[in-house]
UniProtKB/TrEMBL annotation:
Location of the 6-phosphogluconate dehydrogenase NADP-binding domain: 2-149
GO MF annotations in UniProt: NADP binding; oxidoreductase activity
The UniProt record lists the keyword Oxidoreductase: yes
InterPro entries in the cross-refs: 6-PGluconate_DH-like_C_sf, 6PGD_dom2, 6PGDH_NADP-bd, HIBADH-related, HIBADH-related_NP60_sf, NAD(P)-bd_dom_sf, RedAm-like_C
Name of the molecule in the record: 3-hydroxyisobutyrate dehydrogenase
Alphabetic keyword roster: Oxidoreductase
Signal peptide stretch: none
Family label: Belongs to the HIBADH-related family.
Keyword Oxidoreductase: yes
NADPH-dependent reductive aminase-like C-terminal domain sequence ranges: 156-281
Taxonomic path: Bacteria, Bacillati, Actinomycetota, Actinomycetes, Pseudonocardiales
Domain of life where this protein originates: Bacteria
Amino acid sequence: MTVIGLGPMGQAMVRTFLDHGHPTTVWNRSAGRADDVVARGAVRAPTVADALAANELVVLSLTDYQAMYDILGTAERSLGGRVIVNLSSDTPERSRTAARWLAERGARLVVGGVMVPAELVGTEQAYVFYSGPRADFATHEPVLRLVGRPDYLGEDHGLAQLFYQAQLDIFLTVLSAYLHATALVGSAGVDAARFLPYAKENVDTLSYFLDEAARAIGEGKYPGDEATVRMMGATADHILETSRDAGIDLDLPAAVKAHYDRAIAAGHGTDGWPSLFEVITRRE
Ligand code: NDP
């Protein structure tokens, strides 16, 4: 196959393909970034057109979809018949637009989102969301599987990036919450190491709450038998005030409190906390 884009992620993928005996052609804007994988046996394509001509399967690992246009736009005539597997991060809408752009040039797009850091590519922990034409995905699935366990979501090109961004939505928000909480205890001189076991236990129990919320969202019913919006909202206010007293960032707790305020204003005060979903699904 061909791999275009040799940042840490692209290089990790090429190493994996080579380790499994798959001849791999590579191209990168900054040519020197190909040196390591070429030393391991990859073939350096002198131009983008050569990289496209070498194989039907072309994997992209780039910063975003604009980089795809910048690169493939220089060799549009070589795109006919290619299956472009774009594993770069971007929005679902940009994935759909790219599928149309490639189709107009005779190529087909399979969209992917790699769900592990580069150093875990090719390991058992790695998995990758895919969406786009099922037949093209199925044809190339055996080699794509080397990157990580493939999880095919459907024909809609936007789905892979939608799941990718949704997973990172959880990941980034929880990481910020952990840093915020650590700053909160730090305001009283508590160091991160002392707080860590408490934070870990907290994160480990979160999946219980997700089960409860998913059930309520699915049923569209939010019984307020246990944690109501009003009770949790008061806590959200206490976190905001504690942060203010500690002199640390207020943006994160203010955003959380805003969800509770809006839910109360919408009449969910005595409903269960998962009813926040009703205000989160509508931007105001
Ligand atoms: P880098 O930013 O290090 O590499 C990006 C690649 O894109 C480089 O080859 C770079 O070329 C190229 N590029 C960027 N802009 C342009 C442009 N305008 N024209 C031509 N080439 C361009 O990213 P990574 O390798 O870390 O990641 C690649 C993708 O994988 C990203 O979308 C990232 O979100 C995703 N990903 C990365 C993970 C990781 O751990 N690194 C984890 C999961 C997903 P040049 O070398 O010339 O700058």
